[in-house]
Amino acid sequence: MKIVGKFPSTRLRRVRNTAWIRRLVSENNLSINDLILPIFVRDGKNKVESIKSMPGVYRYSVDKLNLIMSKAKKHKIPMVALFPYTPKNKKNKNGSEALNENNLICRSIRFIKKKFTGIGVMCDVALDPYTSHGHDGVIINKKIDNDETIKILVKQALLQAKMGCDVIAPSDMMDGRIGIIRKSLDKNGFQNVSVLSYAVKYASSFYGPFRDAVGSKANLKSDKKTYQMNFKNSNEAYREVGLDIKEGADMVMVKPGLPYLDIIKNIKDNFKIPVFAYQVSGEYSLIKIGIKNKLINEESILESLMAFKRAGASAIVTYFALDIAKKLNNSN
Ligand code: PBG
């Protein structure tokens, strides 16, 4: 990159001097088209329950989903992502509740698809909300077994597709699962169901509040470093993306978000595939609690989301989706 110009003939402040010129020269914009809203679902009836580690985020019983879904619809959010808070007595070591067609996710998809049109539904494929040990896969000889886990994940993905899920999002980090899931979707008539691969998912401390939200935190006794990526690495991330594209991924996710903008940018530049960023629970709660405690102001939300757009993200999964959509809709 060759930078030209010289002070005093060049003064970069000239294009910052007024609000209108700043609007004219702004290079990136965030719109409601970029937002994916995560929703936590719980059992029972008539429940809207706050989550201690995530102020402003709630778990909804299926019958109450219309509350948050109608807000999503009103603010024209393109897609929601569903996550279950599975009751303890339904968890076991193989996460078999993932394959129950009356589990929270299946019931939520059916409910949403019946009542709401024109809004996409995305579901995680992974076993951690369903396993008694909190891992994303099954444990055989003390290891998370890749191939045995995939056998279950394929069934989980097919079940979600059958219920009406639009975007299947494997977030488990097993090797080879994208290809096997894609093939089995095709074989079963789900050629038009998309696969959004969590291709680059780091073993991260920033997932803490989420594990609390889905109730896997207390169960998880060890880390996820044998399947999620080492945060010291980037080359490995591009290998993950390359393989997943070959296996049939339509879109790829980078997760967490803000600490990994370099990865987003490089994927965008080199693979030309839609890249989604996940501003995860820890990122959300740090900003939210910072605002609550008046350490930073609300503008920090937009600043954090704009970073993803600069890096080249097509869309962002964010717990701020509704807050920011309200603002964007009002400013138009
Ligand atoms: C599990 C999953 C996790 C998140 C989404 N799906 C956590 C984990 O891997 O432990 C984290 C999302 C967040 O922190 O907001 N497969």
Proportion in β-strands: 15-25%
Unreliable stretches: none
How many domains comprise the coordinates?
1
Oligomer: single chain
Strand order of the largest sheet: 1-4-5-8-9-10-11-12
The helix/strand order is: HEEEHEHEEEHEHEHHEHEHHEH
What gap, in angstroms, lies between the N and C termini?
Answer: 35 Å
| Full CATH superfamily name | Aldolase class I
Record field, number of beta strands: 12
Fold and architecture overview:
The protein has 332 residues and is an alpha/beta fold. It has a single domain, classed as Aldolase class I (TIM Barrel). The chain has helices at 19-25, 65-74, 104-115, 146-163, 177-187, 208-213, 235-247, 261-271, 281-292, 299-311, 321-331, and strands spanning 35-42, 48-50, 58-61, 79-84, 120-125, 139-140, 143-144, 167-170, 194-201, 251-255, 275-279, 315-318. The strands form 2 sheets. An 8-stranded parallel β-barrel has the order 1-4-5-8-9-10-11-12, surrounded by 9 helices. It has a two-stranded antiparallel ribbon with strand order 6-7. Residues 124, 126, 128, 136, 171, 207, 210-211, 280-281 line the site of ligand PBG.
How is the secondary structure organized here?
Blueprint: H1 19-25, E1 35-42, E2 48-50, E3 58-61, H2 65-74, E4 79-84, H3 104-115, E5 120-125, E6 139-140, E7 143-144, H4 146-163, E8 167-170, H5 177-187, E9 194-201, H6 208-213, H7 235-247, E10 251-255, H8 261-271, E11 275-279, H9 281-292, H10 299-311, E12 315-318, H11 321-331
Parallel strand pairs: 1-3, 1-4, 1-12, 4-5, 5-8, 8-9, 9-10, 10-11, 11-12
Antiparallel strand pairs: 2-3, 6-7
Bound molecules: ligand PBG.
